[in-house]
Amino acid sequence: MKQEHMERILKIGVQLSAERDLNRLLDQLLTCAMELSHCDAGTLYLLDGDVLRFKIMRNHTMQVYSGGDGKEPDMVPVPLKRENMCAMALLEGRTISVDDVKKSQEYDFSGPIRYDALTGYHTQSMLAVPMRNREGEKLGVLQLINAMDEDGTVCPFPQDMALVLESLASQAAITIQNVRYIQDIKELFQSFVRVMSSAIDERSPYNGSHTRHMAAYGNRFLDYLNQQAEHAGEEAPFPPARREELLTSVWLHDIGKLVIPLEIMDKPARLLPEQHTAILHRMEIFRLKSEIDCLSGRLTEEERQALVSRTHEAEALIESVNAAGFLPDEKLEALNSLAAQIYADRNGRQEPWLTQEEHAMLSIRKGTLSQEERGIMESHVTATKKLLSQIRFSHDLSHVREWASGHHELLNGSGYPEHLCGEEIPAEIRILTILDIFDALTADDRPYKPGMPIERALSILDTMASKEGKLDPELVRLFTESRCWEEP
């Protein structure tokens, strides 16, 4: 092996070992192999079961460059049979060189011959180099076509080139295997993240699609932001690593809800079931007692009827208030009047028609949670931060805990739990907050309210941004323009 080849391979090895994207790695590998061998075309195959699949194709003369973007060339896979030169190289673990494919009787070159007939290309010399990892596992094949001399004339591949390319293929095989290991680990982690997210959503019959919706909207919104930057000639704001980090934060943002009691998280009405039952039972007792009092002469029939009517009115009021999204002033006044009514219990003690706790729960102005219950519910973000602190995230995911636990922070400082404001809140949290609020507004599976029409939800987002200073106005504008909640 020449000194220049050794130096070149060392440099290539450093470049390949630094690459973590499999498509770019394969593209670099084929490009380097073609440069070293000074050839006109090449193909890189990876083993998939019992076939070799085309991954990267390069042909300078025909100006064909496909596969570098991750989309496989539209070519029929090569069966792992001995009559195929590249398959034989992999099966026997040796480099095979053919000076002129049209004169060879040993292998089946019908594929290159058909390609030549269709395109006008002239395939002549060919070299196939197998790729195996350190355990000897078969990975794929480098197939190089039409070596050229210094004058640019097609010639056979030099004999010493086999050793050069075998050294390159050996380094590349190890790197490919390492990249695959990393991808497998990442996929395992992402699968775990999705399972944990599903476990959160599956705890409750309500809100079961919240995180999944946010991830879908977020994925399309980040696409839109990158496209807008590209059209403006700017660098994409969310390259793959940053994008993955933000979407992982979306998937994990509600993990703290695992520790929130279901009776609070799933509370469909202001009253707890036992409180609701107790009130109805109390009204029924009033009616039965009125009959006894009427029969014993302590009440007239007219007074009994009036009392029965009041109990039915009380029940109707409680039913109308209990699951309402918002409590208007007139209903609050009616509740106050109901709570002020007195009855005598069996021991003669004077008691209100509504207990203090029942009155307080029914008087909740918005939603179904009391102040104490809302505090417990809001603690899910603190729990999210605590739970995620137990995970040792990689450098590429180092912001996940911060972003996931910050999705209720608002620009004017009125959010929670840290009451951050302005520039203290990074763009990723601002985006996550918009996604969370939008899905909360439009979701039709919440226990305390119906889903809101899209345009009304967008109007609320705009108000929160432009008038209340809670959300980022520019991000809200871009979110609205993106229509990312719509299926493509």
Q: How would you explain this protein's 3D organization?
A:
With 488 residues, the protein is an alpha+beta fold. It has 18 helices and 10 strands. The strands form 2 sheets. Strands 1, 2, 3, 4, 5, 6, 7 and 8 form an 8-stranded antiparallel sheet that branches. It has a two-stranded antiparallel ribbon with strand order 9-10. The longest helix has 42 residues.
Write a brief structural summary:
The chain is an alpha+beta fold and 488 residues long.
Topology (SSEs and partners):
Elements: H1 3-18, H2 22-37, E1 39-48, E2 51-59, E3 64-66, E4 78-79, H3 85-92, E5 96-98, H4 110-119, E6 126-132, E7 138-148, E8 154-155, H5 161-202, H6 210-231, H7 240-252, H8 262-265, H9 273-295, H10 301-322, H11 329-340, E9 342-344, E10 350-352, H12 356-362, H13 371-378, H14 380-388, H15 400-404, H16 427-442, H17 454-466, H18 473-482
Helix pairs in contact: 1-2, 1-5, 2-5, 6-7, 6-16, 9-10, 10-11, 16-17, 17-18
| Largest sheet data | 8 strands, antiparallel
Structural class: alpha+beta
Mean pLDDT reading? 89
What is the helix content? Answer: 40-55%
The number of distinct β-strands equals 10
Order of helices and strands: HHEEEEHEHEEEHHHHHHHEEHHHHHHH
The helix count comes to 18
Q: List unreliable stretches of 5+ residues.
A: none
Quaternary structure annotation: single chain
- The fraction of residues in strands falls at 5-15%
Global outline: elongated
Features:
488 residues, alpha+beta, 10 strands, two-stranded antiparallel sheet
